[in-house]
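re: ur msg from earlier - yeah i can do the flavin mononucleotide complex, just paste it... oh wait u already did. ok heres what im feeding in:
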Amino acid sequence: MKVLMLNGSWREKGCTYTALTIVADALKEEGVDSEIVFVGKDAVNGNINELIKSLKEKCAQSDGFVFGAPVYYASPSGEIQVVLDRLFGAAGDELRFKPAAVVTSARRAGTTSTLDVLAKYPTINQMPLVSSCYWPMVHGSAPEDVRKDEEGVAVMKTLGKNMAWLIKSIEAGKAAGVKQPEDVDKPQTNFIR
Ligand SMILES: Cc1cc2nc3c(=O)[nH]c(=O)nc-3n(C[C@H](O)[C@H](O)[C@H](O)COP(=O)(O)O)c2cc1C
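and the outut:
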């Protein structure tokens, strides 16, 4: 069992990364592997096609996902939005029916609007959204600030444990013969007139 996590900051080892490492440690305690992929650079330096191809392959091998991003101007970073816009177009099948969580990091404000945007991706693709004991955010400008955010740390730990529990529950359901829901015929209508 493996969880793929995306760090959508332009800083490879900053606050978002620190939050994701806390989730990773909690997953490990529950026997679930994880990988943190830094997408902030390749999202914007002309390598997006290669990045999406590689992520699509990783998605196929993963059982759960965490999409992490810092708050930039009260929204998710542009970097994560570029990646998720492209990834959900390219790898919808590899993502569907697998649990996902969203995580954000901010100095101060814009966290809930950021989480709302991030959660829009899994929730249009039939992915169970994993929650924690508070909205999944940490606060700080540097990794050491995040470590001092004791409530944020506990929220990340709980998120990792809840993700592990849901992945294991889905595996147990599959082993017991529970089938994925069948597709419903859905007309695609446009709101023109
Ligand atoms: C371009 C930019 C915009 C930012 N906008 C906000 C903001 O609206 N609200 C806020 O609290 N912090 C804001 N910040 C601070 C970061 O969200 C915060 O320091 C975050 O923890 C950084 O995470 P990282 O180290 O993973 O990049 C901004 C930072 C940058 C670089």
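cool cool. The first helix runs from residue 15 to 29. ping me if u need the other ligands too
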